[in-house]
User: Fold these one by one.
Assistant:
Number 1:
Amino acid sequence: DMMTIPKDDPVAFTFFTGYMAMFAASVFFFFERQSVSDKWKTSLLVSGLITMIAAVHYYYMRDYYAATGQNPTALRYIDWTLTVPLMCVEFYLLTKAAGAKVSLLWKLIAASVLMLVAGYIGEAFVPLNADGTAAAGATNHSVMWGVISTIGYIYILYTAWFGEVKALGDSSGNPQVIKGIKILAWFVLVGWAIYPIGYMCMPGGWLNTGLGWTSSNVDLFYNIADAINKIGFGLVIYSVAKSDSATAK
Amino acid sequence: DMMTIPKDDPVAFTFFTGYMAMFAASVFFFFERQSVSDKWKTSLLVSGLITMIAAVHYYYMRDYYAATGQNPTALRYIDWTLTVPLMCVEFYLLTKAAGAKVSLLWKLIAASVLMLVAGYIGEAFVPLNADGTAAAGATNHSVMWGVISTIGYIYILYTAWFGEVKALGDSSGNPQVIKGIKILAWFVLVGWAIYPIGYMCMPGGWLNTGLGWTSSNVDLFYNIADAINKIGFGLVIYSVAKSDSATAK
Ligand SMILES: CC1=C(/C=C/C(C)=C/C=C/C(C)=C/C=O)C(C)(C)CCC1
Ligand SMILES: CC1=C(/C=C/C(C)=C/C=C/C(C)=C/C=O)C(C)(C)CCC1
C-alpha cells in the first residue's frame, strides 16, 4: 500500500512531494488571490486550479506507482489534457493585458492538443514484450510520434519567442507585463523541454537504449518538470501581479 | 479498480477528465462570483452548483464504469434530474434581466421532466438478452420513448429560437443579454443535440444497429455533451456577466 515508500526510490519520493506541493500551492494561490488587484484575480485563480487538478491526479498517480511500479501513463495524460490548456489560458491572460485576442488562446490550445495526442500515442502504444521491455519497432514508434508532438511544442515555443506573444510584449508599455512575457518564454524553452527528456527514457527511447536510463525515469523527469512549470510559473505570475498591483495603487 | 485505466478506452478517459473538469469549474465559478455585479451573482452560483453536482456524480460514474464496463444509466439520470432543471433556472435568470416571468421557468422544467422521464424509460427498460445484446422489440422501445422525449426537447428548442425566450431577448435593450440569449439558443440546438446521438448508440438504437456504434459510445457522447453544456454554457454566462458588470461601472 501507499504507506510503504521505498527509501531508495526517488520516483516514489517525487510523487509524494509533488502531491503535497501541488496541494499547498493551490491553497497559496487561492488565498493570495485576494491581495492582488482585480485584473490579476483570474490569473491567480487559474494558477490555483492547475495545481489543484494536479494535486488530485498526483494522489492517484502516487498510489498507482506505489502499487504497481509502473508509469501511470493514462493518468499523466489525463492531467495534461486539463492542465496544459489551462497553462495556455494563463499565457493568454498575461498577454491580454498587452492586448491579445482570444484567437491567440485557440492557436496555443490547438498546438498543445497536437503535442499531447501525439505524445500519448507515442507512450501508451509503444510496442512492448510481455516483460515490459522494448519490442521490435519500439524506437521507430517513439521517435516518430515524439517528432510529431515536437511540432506542436515548437509552434508554442516560436509564438513565445518570435511570434504573437513576443510582439504583444514589445508593444505593451507595462514593464511588469514585458518582464512576465520574457520569463514565460524562458519557461517554455527550459521548463517544458524537460518533458521530452522524460519521454525518451521509455523502453525503446533514445535515452533508454543509448544511455540505459530506465523507464522509471520518465516519471522522475515529468514530476520535476511539473513542479517547475505548474508551481514555478504560477509564482512568477503571482510576483508580476503583486508588483503591478503595487504600481497601480 | 478505478486505478487501472485502460490505455485505449476513451470512455474511461472522459469520465476521469470530466470529473476533474467539473470540479475545477465549480471552484472557478464560486470564486469568480465575487467579481461580477450583484445581479449576476446568482447565475454564477447556479453554474457552480451544476458543475459541483456533476463532479460528484462523475466520481461515482467513473468508478462504476471502471468496475463494470457498463453504462451508469441510473446515475446519469440522477444527475440530469438535478442539473437539467438547474440549467432551466440558468436560462430563466438570463431572461429575467429582460423581464421574464417565473411561469417561463415552470414551462421549461415541465418540458425537461417529460424529456428525462421518457429518456429514462427508453434507456433503462430497453428489452435485452442475458448477454446484454438487443432483444426483440429493443428498437421499437428505444425509438418510441426517444420520440416522446424529443417532444420535450423540441418544446425547449422552440421556446429558445422562436418563443418566449426569443421575444424577451428582442424586447430587452441590453446588448449583453441579447447576445447571451442568442448563444443560449445555439447551445440548446447544437450542444443538447449531442445527447440524442448518444442515446441512439444503446443496444437496439439506430446508430447501434445501423452503423455498429457500440453502447459504450452512449457515455462518450454524454460526457462530451455535458462538458460543453455544463462548463461551456457556464463560461458563456460568466463572460456575459463580466462584460455587463464592466459596462454598469
Ligand atoms: C515535446 C514532447 C512532449 C512535450 C510535453 C510537454 C511540453 C508537456 C507540458 C506539460 C505542462 C506544461 C504541464 C503543465 O501543467 C511529450 C508529450 C512529452 C512527447 C515528446 C515530445
Ligand atoms: C432529446 C432526447 C434526449 C435528450 C437529452 C438532453 C437534451 C439532455 C440534456 C442534458 C443537459 C443539458 C444537462 C446539463 O446539465 C434523451 C434523454 C437523451 C433521450 C433521447 C431523446
Number 2:
Amino acid sequence: MTAEHRSDRVTVLAGGVGGARLAHGLDLAGADLTVVVNVADDVELHGLWISPDLDTVTYTLAGLADEERGWGVVGETYAALDAMGRLGEDTWFTLGDRDLATHVVRTARLRAGASLSDVTAQLTAALGVRARVLPVTDDRVATLVDTPAGRLGFQEYFVGRRHADDVLGLVYDGIDAARPAPGVLDAVTDADVVVVAPSNPFLSVEPVLGVAGVREALAGTTARRVAVSPIVGGRAIKGPAAQILTTLGHEVSALGVARLYVGLVDVMVIDDHDAHLADAVRALGMDVVVTDTVMGGAPGRERLAREVLRAGGASRG
Amino acid sequence: MTAEHRSDRVTVLAGGVGGARLAHGLDLAGADLTVVVNVADDVELHGLWISPDLDTVTYTLAGLADEERGWGVVGETYAALDAMGRLGEDTWFTLGDRDLATHVVRTARLRAGASLSDVTAQLTAALGVRARVLPVTDDRVATLVDTPAGRLGFQEYFVGRRHADDVLGLVYDGIDAARPAPGVLDAVTDADVVVVAPSNPFLSVEPVLGVAGVREALAGTTARRVAVSPIVGGRAIKGPAAQILTTLGHEVSALGVARLYVGLVDVMVIDDHDAHLADAVRALGMDVVVTDTVMGGAPGRERLAREVLRAGGASRG
C-alpha cells in the first residue's frame, strides 16, 4: 500500500474532555486511532472503580457523551444516586444511572481479575467504538493536589471543591511503580502522528508522560508530534489549567504550554487569538500552526483534527 | 409495666413477600417487632451482593415496596440495567436503579468490613424502618436446587428459570458453618410471640431454622409460637411452595405445612378455605385459628397481624 491508501496511524495522549473531543474529530477524519488516556484522576467511590477520563473518551467516541455539560452520558437520570443519598452515602460526586452501570461493570470485571486495559477494550467494543482506547497504565496512579488547605485527593479537589483551591504542587502517587499498559509504548513509537491533546498539562498530560517509558517513547519516536494548546487568549478553554499554570510559576499562554513540551513536540497548534505568540513558539524549536482551536460539535472537531493531521504530515517523507 | 401497657415483643421468621407483608401488618399493629430474615437466596451478580429477602422486608416496612409486582421498589426505573446490558452483562436478574443503589451501598460496606447485620441496621435506619431487621446469619448460606436439569443456584432456579423445574432436593450450602447473627437467638428466646411467616417452608423457613441454634431456640422458647400457612385451598399464595411440597412428597395443604412444624409451633393460622383441616391440624397437637389469611394492602395485613397477635396471646399468663 502507498501512503495515500492507508489511514494515518495516530496516537493521542489525552485527559478528559479536550482529548476526547479531538480524538472524536480524528476518528471522524478517518484516522487509525489509538487514544492513550490518563488514569490518575481515577477514584474508588461507593466501592466502585471510576475512571473519569477513560469514560469521557469512551462516551465521546461512542456518541453517548453529554456534550453540553462536558461529562457523563446524554439523557442521563439520577435515580440510583438519589437512593444512595437516602441510604446515607455522600453524593458530592454525581453519578448518573447509565454512568453507574459502567462503574459497576468495570469494578466487577476488575475484581474478577481483568486488567483495566481488558475492561476498557470490552467496554469500548460493546459501545461500538472503533478506536483503541488504552489506559496509560493498568497500575494505580493517583494525582494528589497540594493546596493551602492541605493535600487533597484529585476528585476532592476537582469535583468536591470545584477546583477553587490554589494548586501549590502535584504528586502522582504510584507513578514510579506504574508500568505502561500493553500497547501504549508501541502506540507512541509506531505511530505516524502523536498528538498531545489540548488537555491540562499538569493534571492530564504529565501523569501520562510520567509512566515508565512514555516520555522516552515520545522523545524518541519517529512520529511527527503535534500538541494543541489548551490555553487560548490566556485562558483555559475548560477547567483549572490557567490557575495551575499561574500558581506553579508558568506563563498562562500557548507559549507557556509550548515551553513545557520542548523536546517532546515538533508542532504546536495555537489558536488564532494567539497568532502573536507564533514566533516565540518557533524560537523554542517547534513548527507552529495557527488556526481556530476551539472545537464545538462534530464539524469543529473534525476540522481541527484535519489541521492536526496536516501538521503531522507536513514533514513526512 | 403491666402487660396492657407495653407492646408485644414479636419476632417473625421470614422469607420475602409473605414475611414482609405480615411483618408490615405487625408493625402497623404496634408490635415491638424483630424480623429474622432468610439469606440463603442471596446472590452475587455484577460484583454486587444482593439480599432479596432482606430487601423485600426492608422496602415493605419502609413503604417503598412495589406491592403490585411483589418485589423491588415502587416507581422503579431501569436505566442502569439497560446500560449494563449494552455493556455485555447478562441482565436476566432485573435490577432497578433504586434497588441497584441498595446493592452498591451494601456491597461497598461489606467490602469495607461491615457485617451484613451492620449494613442492614444502617439501611433500615436510613429508610425509617422502626422494626429490627436481622439477617439470620452474617455468614454465607446458599440454597442450591436439585432439579431434573441438574443442580441450580437459587436465583437461577427462581428468577432465571422462573421456578419451572421440579425440585427434587434442596441443599443449604454453608449452613452447617453458619452462626446466627447477633440478636437472632435472643429475639427468638425472649419474644412474647414468635411468628413463622407464611413463607415457603423449604426455600425460606428451613434455611432460617437450619442456622445453628435457631431451631433449638424456637423449640425451647417460652414465647407463644404461631405459624401462618402459606398454602390456601391447596395452592400457594405466591411462588413455588405447592410444587415443592409435591415433589418432595408432602401434602399440598395447610395440614401438610403444619406437619413440617410439629414441635416448633403452638398455633397454626389457616385460611377460611381450609377450615375443614382444622381438626387434623389440632390432632398434631397445635391450636388452630381459622381466618382470612390472604393479605392485600395495609388493612388486610394489619387485620391478619392482629389475629396472629391474638393467637399468640391466647395462652399467656
